[in-house]
Amino acid sequence: MSTRRVDGYLPLEDYGALGDGRTVALSGSDGSIDWLCVPNLDSPPLFDRLLDPDEGGRFSITPSEPFDVEQRYRPNSNVFETVFTTASGRAKMTESINSGTAGRLPWVELARRIDGLDGIVRFDIEMRPGRRAHTASPYQSHIGKHSIFHVGDVLGLFLHSEGVEVERRDDAVAGSLSVGPGQREVVAVVAGEGEPLVVPPINEIDERIDLSDAEWRTWAERIAYRGDRRAEFIRSVLALKLLLFSPSGAIAAAATTSLPEGIGGAKNYDYRYAWVRDAGYTIKAFLAAGAQPEAKAAFTWLLKRLAEHGDRVCYTLGGDLVPEVTEIDVPGYRGSRPVRTGNGATAQSQHGVYGDIFETAARFVDCGNILDSSSAETLSHLADRCADSWRRKDSGIWELEQAEHYTMSKVSCWQALARAVELADQGQLPTTCRDRWARERDRIESWIGENCWSDQKRAFVLHPGTERLDASLALMVRFGFDGPERLVSTMDAIDRELGAGPWHYRYSDVSEEEGCFLACTFWMIEARFLLGQRAQAEEMLAKLDDTIGRGVGILSEMVDPRNGAFLGNLPQGLSHLAHVMALDGLVAASECVR
Predict the structure, then answer these.
(1) What is the pLDDT of residues 486-504, one digit of tens each?
(2) Where's the GH15-like domain (predicted)?
(3) How far is the C-alpha of 241 from the C-alpha of 22, rounded, in Å?
(4) 499: which strand partners?
(5) What is the pTM of this model?
(6) Cis peptide leading into 502, omega within 30 of 0?
(7) Domain 12-200+209-216 belongs to what topology?
(8) CA-to-CA distance for 251 and 77, rounded, in angstroms?
């Protein structure tokens, strides 16, 4: 494909994601790294051209003449390849945020290898850090042949092989390189924050690209999936792995902030935090994939945060409460403002927290694992709070400003207490309050049946007193709520009223503000599989092949139904984990037929 920027921006589907378990970079189809936070995924960005096309930081290695491009991940790996074709030749760029033989490196090592394939290809290079959240302007210094940059407490190095020509400026490094058949050049950025910095030999950085690739492939080969869509399944699990913050075990909702849910709109949020909902669903996806160590690390982290802070909605990746929202004075993606750090959801009440953590605990135990006494105590207290609070209004799964008795929130409370009773019966939780949990579970089920069903719509609705629908209610099927007749009818109503092409909006009357939410469509597919509607589910999944194949396997939060363009933050964990669970449902449905 050919690639070009419009007003300085690339389409979001033109980015691949690189990561090392600590941070994530986005590499564009024109050879520009437009997003990288150092040292951590939720640190201020070092490269932020994604949100500021003119003044933002970038690390670009781009052909000097017009080009076509092919992008792909190496099989079963998060090492990324781009082939550039110009009138004068072809060259391949291979990119990685490297790891070492002992796992994640104690510094960020962004490596970029350029191999000549045919003819001669010349590349222009620019490495310019961005202003660190507008608190510090970058500047360059030099020690010997090394170009050093300073941005606040971040210290970095621009390193390169001998054939790279470099021009040093006060605020950037510029240069060029040329490669022919069999020729290789390597360019890298090594960075850390508030710490001495190792200067690795460039040949070792080059070698670690292949070492990192081998580590990714070894990990991916152990992923359990028996279906026909293994490559898709592994690609989404690999994307989820990028969002697992290895220093703590937290799972970030996404790797970016403020990418708009609707171009020019104000629904631009910072998703570089760990939501209980997203983490819980991701843990279940890891368990479905047989990735037990990742699931255990994330589950342990989540339980400790809930024990420490109570039933909060989200936390920082280090385990603290998420800071208040701050607006940053940059243009935003395609002029969509405001650009934000922090997130207001941390102060909300969301009953979904209860269902998410208990569904995770139940799945963890179902896989043959055991809860320790401290975790059991934490879960018992959460079940008690759920039994106490389910009658109250909350902000719901969609974090809406208007508190209501949202149907999905009540379902989540029912789900939590149902799983708590099951865990108590299995000997995993104390049985002291087991009967009370069972009574409240049954009361919630009756309340939902009496108040949340619409005879007019033949569906469960967003909340009592409205005829609006909510696509997240597809999860009722996975949770085992109600009987199949009402659930099938609800799925049909969601398809009719919230469907737009192969995708779905989150809830009624939101189409003017945002795109279609990818996770909702995957939830609908999973629900159809679980309801025994295999042919319908497979047809829906096939219609999404163009969406999944539009980029390189990295999914955003939303899709514009008018043109299929990606919207919202990416890689979006909720989209990938819902994809994993839909494909897992396909396998389960196939095995039931056999």
Answers:
(1) 999 999 999 999 999 999 9
(2) 231-527
(3) 10
(4) 504
(5) 0.96
(6) no
(7) Beta-galactosidase; Chain A, domain 5 (2.70.98)
(8) 19
